[in-house]
Amino acid sequence: MDTTSPTKARLVKRGWLTGFAQAIPIVLGYISIGIAFGVLAQKAGLSTPNTLLMSLLVYAGSSQLIAVGLFKAGVPALSIIATTFVVNLRHMLMSAAVSPYLRRWRKAELAAFAYQLTDETFAVHSVRLATGRPVKSEVFAINALAQVAWILGTWLGIMLGGLISDAQPLALDYALPAMFVALLVFQIKDRIQVAVALLAGLLAVGLLLSGVDRWNVMLATLIGASVGVSLEKWTKKRSS
């Protein structure tokens, strides 16, 4: 009796269920932030189809919020594209970080994975992939559910936007940084990571105050990550 197919089917089903469970924190954040984006996009004058298509095709929370702000300010299209491109350059670092764990994946699978890779899903995948080799269905379940939540939140925001006369007092643009802070807190496990997080945060603020308003986060991340790697190597060498 051939048990390969039933066993594989059970693994796939278990992977989807595990992936859904892993994605719940992201879903809760994405719905709220998606609502914020939908409201801001509606107030900026973007049409409902264009707003939903942005969440479907662009699917990058920070870039979408920045693009909406620039669109509302009347910035030319090429400037909006260039700005969002710079903001999204961090995806190169995230992809490079997880690529060693995906060497056996087919090109179509890599393309699907890269399309739905975000800061939050990367935070989950980087931990899961480093500690083992989860089934592909689990990985794609996390990505798919996260994007569905983002699109749903966007749609809800568009609907709510018509009921809100002034969105500025609600500080909706702070929703995305707030979720990043929450994810960071859950990922920190030792004193080195605390030190690196504080260093990167201080550097980002310092660079912003000094006039580096587009590259400050990326430069702070690179410096912080480099310092973190050096500290970890030094600590391991000292303990051995």
**Rg, Cα atoms, Å:** 20 Å
The end-to-end span amounts to 52 Å
- Given the C-alpha coordinates, what overall shape results? globular
Alpha-beta classification: mainly alpha
What is the domain tally?
Answer: 2
* Low-pLDDT sequence parts: none
Please report the number of helical segments: 11
Main sheet properties: none
Approximately how much helix is present in the residues? over 70%
Number of strands: 0
Beta-strand fraction estimate: under 5%
Oligomer: single chain
Report on the architecture of this protein:
With 240 residues, the protein is an all-alpha fold. It is 78% helix and 0% strand. The mean pLDDT is 83.
What's a concise summary of this model?
The protein is mainly α and 240 residues long. The protein is built from 11 helices and no strands. 78% of the residues lie in helices and 0% in strands.
List the helices and strands and how they pair.
Blueprint: H1 4-44, H2 48-58, H3 61-72, H4 77-87, H5 90-98, H6 107-115, H7 119-131, H8 136-161, H9 175-187, H10 191-209, H11 216-239
